[in-house]
Amino acid sequence: MAADTAPAFWQQAPADTRVIVGLSGGVDSSVTALQLVEAGYQVEGLFMFNWSEDEAGRCQAADDFDDAAAVCEALDIPLHRADFSREYKSRVFRYFLDSYAAGRTPNPDVLCNREIKFDAFLHHAERLGADAIATGHYARIEHDSSGTRLLRGRDPGKDQSYFLAAVPMAALERTMFPLGETHKTDVRAMARAAGLPIHDKPDSTGVCFIGERDFEGFLREYLSGQAGPVRVSGGPLDGRTIGEHAGLIYYTIGQRKGLGLGGVAGASDAPWYVATKDLDSDTLWVTQDHAHPALVETTLTTTPPHWLIDAPAFPRRCKAQVRYRQRAIDCVVDKGPDGGLTVTFDQPPRAIAPGQYAVFYDDDHCLGSAEILHAGRPDLRVSVSA
Fold first, then answer.
1. Which of 59, 72, 208, 366 is flagged as catalytic?
2. Active-site positions, per UniProt (predicted)?
């Protein structure tokens, strides 16, 4: 983005800039508001209800709203509220279910950011007169004469640029990430020092609409799995059926826990991993080989990409990260089938899962993302035992 088209708030004085903060009632978003207030911005909060009232108990929405209100009272700023549950159900949750039904492992955090926080929330904030929005993500935005860039957060253990890589650049240009320069270890101390009432509130984990419940149990309320055989790929039990699964939708590539495969006759005590899922035969292939070829693919293919830069020339060397907690690995990105990409890694990532996102980086600079379609080239897939 050229300098003369930079967002107006970038060059405004803080006192002239109205920023609406997405407040969840948690520590990160509260300290985001705190930092902006201390910097002299006109700050307001907005609490998003993203799950319908009949389900709200799972997310403790009412309690979280009360916490957000208490923070706004302590900071002496207004608090708005907005119900985006209809948008969430149709644009995030529906895709989440459809993806699992198709055997993929979707990432609802990426979808929620793209569809709700940086679309529905942004547009609502604009109607309230905001110059910019802010969230508690650990990421950085830089504006200069060469354009706007999304960068990793300074805290490598909390960087959340992975979850933002599918957000349109037009939305990121209107966004502030005050925690991008901050380490997580300092955030709670900042909340305590400021006397914020949520300074000791535990961090939320997992997906809001699932809450503290068992993930498989949650899926069973919405999707019916088709039972099928569990078979071994590789090793002395190669091809043998060693059990029955309740449905491929409940498993993801590389999964180790929750397989229920202890004490298999003729097998070692080593852990079992999901190697692949055969949707045609409803077969779950498992292995005790941590380096099974299906778990260490060096190539993947994607859907058409979303770039945060001008569309690059191919082939393009960069780094790619295939899950949030994995490291980015050097790779070559090239054109793939149907407008997608083919990504070839210098070293294999662990357990590439269709439905997750490949996010591309040049050092700290996030270049864009694409949803993973397949591990391996479609015309040269790793085969499991027949």
1. 208
2. 112, 208
